[in-house]
Amino acid sequence: MSDIGSAKVRLYVEQPLGQGQSVPLTRDQAHYLFSVMRMGVGDVVLAFDGASGEWLARVAESGKRGGTLVCESQTRPLQMPPDLWLLFAPIKKARTDFIVEKAAELGAARICPVQTAFTNAERIRQDRLQAHAVEAAEQCGGTYVPEVCNLQKLDTVLADWPEGRRLMFCDEALVGAGRSLGDAPRGPWAILIGPEGGFSGAERDRLRALPFAHPVSLGPRVLRADTAAVAALTVWQQALGDWT
Amino acid sequence: MSDIGSAKVRLYVEQPLGQGQSVPLTRDQAHYLFSVMRMGVGDVVLAFDGASGEWLARVAESGKRGGTLVCESQTRPLQMPPDLWLLFAPIKKARTDFIVEKAAELGAARICPVQTAFTNAERIRQDRLQAHAVEAAEQCGGTYVPEVCNLQKLDTVLADWPEGRRLMFCDEALVGAGRSLGDAPRGPWAILIGPEGGFSGAERDRLRALPFAHPVSLGPRVLRADTAAVAALTVWQQALGDWT
Fold first, then answer.
1. A160-175 tens-digit pLDDT
2. Could you tell me the sign of the dihedral formed by the alpha carbons of B11, A195, B78, B19, in that order?
3. Which of A135, A131, A239 shows the shortest CA–CA distance to A178?
4. Phi and psi torsions of B97, nearest 5°
5. CATH for B72
6. For residue A187, is pLDDT > 70?
């Protein structure tokens, strides 16, 4: 029970990790490790805090309501995603959860639900979506967890747009007419995915007029919003991200 | 109620469509149109049969157990996807459904569940997966429905491999080492996505030795099988398909 190969659980913890560091477990984590996974003192997990890479950590204390891990050695360095935000209009619950999971897996640095003219959602459960991003990072071997922002109006986001960040704007009305990302500059970017009903005429006009916006086509078929999110993240990572 | 803009329903039908053609409705279709959508005689739908494009069709008869449409005019020509097959190892039900839906949306011509060494699924519900492909085509404006094959062993599929078809093989062990599709030839292709547990050593050796196989990397993160399927379809469509 002593090496990395025997660690069957990856755990995101909020406490900073480091050599010899003690890490208190939350009640939920203790329940998962000791009741669900039937682990005990001496067993090892892989832990990451989103900032210090991945660590082999051994259970030093176990209890029904808590426990302690002790970090033994770093198993992987921190791997930051590129400086890419995903902006998307929330859709039905399962598909919104899916978008957050996939954005975390595919390496978005920040996930921002935005309210557009045709967005049905009035609010989101930010805590629930953040938990999905954590779980996706735990599952896919990530050492970083993207921040899930609170729901903001698209108008507000565009009005406060940070200087120097480019926007890849995927619009189904662009079928066959979008630009390629092939010669676009690297640096901070965001991807914007519209809601199932598309953007309103006013939104589309505004987006097209933005000097930092790059309209991109995702092929000749109309894609659902969740498909478009995964396809757009793939297109961007291939052209400008860390896939090459 | 006479033009294409008022058609709120897209319907896949098995009967061949054409000018003036009468189309009998199944019991399920009649229930959907007349009970769920509360349509009646004179209302219009968009219908496609997977071979004749999309047609504006008007309800001529409506009943509880059936009804008839009459084709009035073709609204879109048939758009065939590229000659691309998606081979994937079935995973949990919801994620398998998702892969089929996304493959139909992203333009795969055939969807083939394959049993690998580490595939848990002993069988699939081919009829249910085919229905998902139909629903995805109805939703996304497609005029073609990819065929969902029955579950076959990967070994059998590879032993019967059709001459001239290339295989894009996505293996998480390839991180950073895959070839690019940039200069690969167009023509018939298949994408192969492994199960959550990856390929076995023997499978990997066999796949790598195949003269028609192109190993491709999907970036530095480990992707879930369903994410990998969408990302791989996107990469292929961009490089060799109909997105350009």
1. 999 999 999 987 665 5
2. positive
3. A239
4. -55, -45
5. 2.40.240.20
6. yes
Note which residues in 126-155 of chain B have CB less than 8 A from chain A.
139-142
10-residue mean pLDDT series, chain B (244 residues)? 69 95 95 94 96 96 94 95 96 89 96 90 88 93 94 94 94 62 89 89 91 89 92 94 85
| Helix, strand, coil % in chain A, rounded to nearest 5 | 30, 25, 45
Output Rg (C-alpha) for chain B, integer angstroms: 20
Looking at B20, B52, B76, the residue that finishes a domain is B76
Could you tell me the CA-to-CA distances from A181 to A158, A169, A185, A223, A236 in Å, in that order?
21, 11, 8, 19, 7
Nearest-Cα distance to chain A for B235, in Å, is 7
CB A195 within 8 A of CB A160: no
Residue appearing with tokens 């969408």 = B230
Q: Does one domain contain both A37 and A102?
A: no
Q: Do A105 and B223 touch (CB under 8 A)?
A: yes
pLDDT tens-place string over residues A62-89: 998 999 999 999 999 999 999 999 999 9
Instruction: Report the alpha-carbon distance of residue A130 to residue A68 in Å, rounded.
Output: 24
Q: What range does the domain containing B105 cover?
A: 84-240
Asked whether residue A124 falls in the same domain as residue A177, the answer is yes
Using the Cβ of A243 and the Cβ atoms of chain B, whether some distance falls under 8 Å is answered with yes
* Cβ burial A106-126 (10 Å sphere, 16+ → b, else e): bbbbbbbbbbbbebebeebee
Total domain count, chain A? 2
Q: What is the pLDDT of residue A212?
A: 94
